Amino acid sequence: LRMLILVMGLSGSGKTTLARKLCRSLKAKHLNADAIRSEYNDWDFSIPGRIRQAERLRNLASESDSDYIVIDFICPLKQGREIINADYTIWMDTIDSSEHKDTDSMFIPPSSPDFVIKAWGSDVQADILSAILSDLK
Predict the structure, then answer these.
(1) In the predicted model, what is the mean pLDDT of the chain?
(2) What is the Cα–Cα distance from 6 to 43, expressed in whole angstroms?
(3) What is the DSSP code string of 47-112?
(4) In this structure, which of 10, 46, 49, 98 has its CB flanked by the most CB atoms within 10 Å?
(5) Is 93 in contact with 118 (CB distance < 8 Å)?
């Protein structure tokens, strides 16, 4: 039984930092959207490009045999979140804007994330989330 966890939020919100800590604690596979874009040399940030990236991340997650998979992705569109179809969504709601105004303008906050982080910077948050997520499995 695998668990797919989406860590989402604006650029600079702390997604990758949290995702790395969760991956260490849960021994999870980490799918970082920037690393995947680099691997595929796909820097298309249009709406179709963002949808393609969500599909790519979903497909890579489905190919993994890890018990836990953490996708670390801005995921600004509701359609992208529906494609990923995570078991649990963590919204890094720690900043109001980023240096990427095009992304900020299309970002639709998730309507019902499982966890919302309003302020980031504590390893304790990562430890608590890891414990909760491992208990949910």
Answers:
(1) 94
(2) 20
(3) HHHHHHHHHHHHHHHHH---SEEEEE----SHHHHHHH--SEEEEE---S--S-HHHHHH----SS
(4) 10
(5) yes
The HSE-up count of residue 50 (CA atoms within 13 Å, CB side) is 17
- Is there a contact between 1 and 137 (Cβ–Cβ < 8 Å)? yes
Q: Which long-range contacts (CB under 8 A, 24 or more apart) does 118-124 make?
A: 118/93, 118/94, 119/94, 120/13, 120/14, 120/17, 120/18, 120/92, 120/94, 121/14, 123/21
Query: pLDDT at position 127, please?
Result: 85
Of the candidate ranges 12-21, 31-40, 88-97, 120-129, the one whose mean pLDDT is the lowest = 120-129
* Torsion on CA atoms 96, 126, 54, 102, rounded to nearest 10: 20
Q: Cα(22)–Cα(29) distance, rounded to whole angstroms? A: 10
d(CA 114, CA 44): 29
